[in-house]
Here is the input.
Amino acid sequence: RVAISTSGLELMEGDITSMPGQTEGIRAFHFKVSDYEEAKREMEEKGVPLLSDITLGQLREAIYHPDDLNGAMMGLVWYPTDTVMEAIKTKGD
Here is the structure.
């Protein structure tokens, strides 16, 4: 299950078979950031390695591995539209 707030916070509940040793709880969380490149720089400065940097339409997402963040995958997202789905469906610049 996924919950997305209007302010850009996303929480994802995981399938217990997909995360070894995890029986319940949040599998991943995403934060919408106002400055994507600066947010990635801050994570790098804190020593958290970037796992993946993807673009879907106008959505940018930096993904960080659960092993580096106490067991939950984290994503930093940026999009100029009102919703995630709008951003994904809109062609990038």
User: Anything to note?
Assistant: The first helix runs from residue 36 to 45. Helices lie at 36-45, 84-89.
